[in-house]
Design goal:
By secondary structure, this protein is mainly α. Helices cover 84% and strands 0% of the residues.
Amino acid sequence: MSIPEQGEGVRKGSFYMLMALSITGVSLFLFNVLAARSIGKSEFGKLGVFYSLFSFIASFLASGFRDLIAVTIPGIQEKATLNKFLEKAFSSFLFYFIIFYILVWFLSPVLIHRFFDNHIISFSLFSLCFIFLFSLMFIRGILLGFRKISYVAISHSIYGVLILITGIFFYFTSNKLLHFEFSYLFSLLIPIPVTIYLLKKISPLKLNFNLRNIISPGNPLLMSTINSILEAYFYIGILLMRIKNSPYSEIGLFNATLTFFAGVKTFYSAIFMPLLPNLSYAISRKDKRLFIHYIKRIGILIMLTLIILSILSSTFLPSLWNMIFGKEFRFQKIDFILISIIISLYLLLRLFSRAFFAIKEINYIFFSFVIFIILLALLFFLSPLPAIISIEISFLLASLITLLFLYIRIYKILSQS
């Protein structure tokens, strides 16, 4: 039996990830509440831009390599082939680590001016957060490939605990934006050596660097583009609002509205993370029944989630958020209802992306998500409505159109196989 076959399945892996991401989700929620009450709506908007930018760029550049590794390892049967692939993975990590960090600093004049109000210290913290998250995503991809979901869960849990501890510390000792930005930096740094230690328990580190042993950036970057859109989904909205020069107060309000739905995203991340290697495992065994079983069950769960979110959003949730975040924030019921629908569409988009990755229909889903971004930007920039309602309606329409394209394609593929 190969090492990947000894890993954890979707049910067991989802349990581990649910526990870990619940810790992370609650911690991030409390961190956001503490930050918002400490630094105010406008500065909280800037913190949202800071987090959105390093998360989006790291996802764009690293998540494709993570998923490619997670999909490839379960299908490898021979130890020699596995070791050769791991050497290739680590060589690629070192190479792209250097290239992408240089790229970020090459673009620094534009980034500092547009997103950091010419604050070089904030940009420096951002660049380190980006490279730390890039490293974590790459290493976690190898753990996912071995289906050691419990190890990935430990890595996520450490990040969640640290972000809450630093948030509490700075809430009582400081009311400066820079300190809350540092919280992200510290919380991403500490999990790296722990995650490397966990990886060494199941596989030796193959650090023989060889330029001829680099994974081609083609498919990984296509996958990264899709992942970055999905993993930074709503935060793309924050970046678009900043590009359109929307007031930081409106960005802060939108960012605060998203904090509840971040919990839903966290819950489903616990399902989607182990789903990809297990879908790939089903495809490698030519088990179409198991593949469809995974897709249908999660699809039903998403529909139930939509019903629950709609009920909460149309009743007491906006009032509860007004009480939690304080007098400076005023939340509207219509915003919560629209985002409830959008988050459900987002979950369906993530489900389809896992399915398309597993069957290696990467080009089709890539172009579908390019269309999504184009539609989202056009609808938002052309809208005469206020910024928050404009970005919500733009998300709704762009997501529906993209889902229609993906559903037609996946239905055709499954009908023919």
